[in-house]
Each structure stands twice: as structure tokens, then as C-alpha cells.
Specification:
single chain; about 190 residues; 4-stranded antiparallel beta sheet; about 25% strand
């Protein structure tokens, strides 16, 4: 609900989810695109021109946390991270929204996504910027590229492939703790 994503349901039974639609907004905050994730068979496509990182306009909303910015590789991981951070937050944080977004177009867009946020004046609003990369070579490479652009960028990954896999496996508290406590600035020799 917070992200404005939609689910397309089967016309046959009206209940079976077929696709997810993730809204994308340009730098002026205008809806310009939907990234679409088909569930069965799994596939991805987009409708409309490129937009900024998924969820970026929400960073400017009242009640959005300004402490930590969590950047995920994809929309589903972003929403999974948001869910556990909101669900298991301490009482004093329950009324705020965790600052969670995803990259413009997967792991290869980490630098352009960070530049977009910098150009919008959003990066400097956070005490920590954390890239929650997938547990694969492409994710690690994306983190390394992101650190070249933003040397203070912290990195964290999950034990499973990504945040959504952790959530789907029922590892909610593990994901919550990983996101909040395991992010570090990682140096190439320590990776």
C-alpha cells in the first residue's frame, strides 16, 4: 500500500495473482512507467520511459525516516525489507516509515540511482546509506561500483539470495536483524 504497487488477478477465478505492477516516477515526481513482474512464467517488462528509483518520492513524505536509507536491487526485495523493518520496529519507531527504495534497473544501475538521489538532494539527509545487494557476484560487483561513487556506502546481503527470499522462507527476524545491524563499509580486501 505504501509503495502504490498493484497486482493483476486472473480473469478466470479473480483471485490468482498473475503480475505485479511497480510504479516509477521521473525526477519531477510524475508517474511515467510501470515495471511489471509476471509470476508464472516468471518474466519482466516495462511500460513507459525510464523513471527514478522505485519508491524515491516516498523519501520526501512526512513520516519517512531520515536515519537510514535502505537501497535494494529490486522492488520485491525493497517491499520485503520495508515490511520487516516496519513490522519489528521498536514502539517509538512504529509511526515512521522505513526509508526503502530499489535501484532504477537492477544491479547495473547502482551508480545512476545514487546520482539520481544525489541530484535530488536526498543522499545527504540520511545518517547512513545502506545498499542491500543480492547474495551473488552481480550484487557484490554493484556494491563495489556504488562505493566508488559514494565511499561511505554501507553494504549488506542476506544468507539467501535476497530479502524477498528471506521473507518467503519465514526468516523475518533474521532479515530484520541483518538489515539493521550487519551493514558495514566493506573494503575490497575484506570482501
Amino acid at each position: 500500500e505504501w509503495f502504490g504497487s498493484c497486482v493483476a488477478l486472473s480473469e478466470t477465478d479473480g483471485t490468482t495473482p498473475l503480475s505485479h505492477y511497480y510504479p516509477r516516477f521521473n525526477a519531477e515526481g510524475t508517474l511515467v512507467r510501470y515495471n511489471v513482474r509476471n509470476l508464472e512464467p516468471k518474466g519482466f517488462y516495462s511500460i513507459g520511459p525510464n523513471g527514478g528509483p522505485f519508491g524515491w518520492p516516498l523519501l520526501q513524505e512526512k513520516g519517512s525516516s531520515k536515519f537510514k536509507l535502505f537501497i535494494f536491487e529490486d522492488e520485491l526485495s525493497c517491499m520485503s525489507g520495508y515490511y520487516v523493518l516496519k513490522q519489528y520496529a521498536k514502539a517509538e519507531w512504529k509511526s515512521s516509515h522505513p526509508a526503502c527504495i530499489s535501484l532504477e534497473a537492477g544491479s547495473g544501475s547502482v551508480v545512476s540511482s545514487l546520482k539520481f538521489l544525489q541530484d535530488k538532494g536526498l543522499l545527504g539527509q540520511y545518517q547512513e546509506v545502506i545498499f542491500c545487494y543480492d547474495n551473488d557476484d552481480a550484487g557484490l560487483k554493484a556494491y563495489e561500483e556504488g562505493r566508488k561513487f559514494l565511499p561511505s556506502l554501507k553494504g549488506v546481503t542476506t544468507n539467501l539470495k535476497d530479502a524477498n527470499d528471506e521473507l518467503m522462507a519465514g526468516r523475518h527476524m533474521e532479515l530484520f536483524r541483518t538489515l539493521l545491524f550487519n551493514a558495514k563499509v566493506k573494503h575490497p580486501e575484506g570482501m
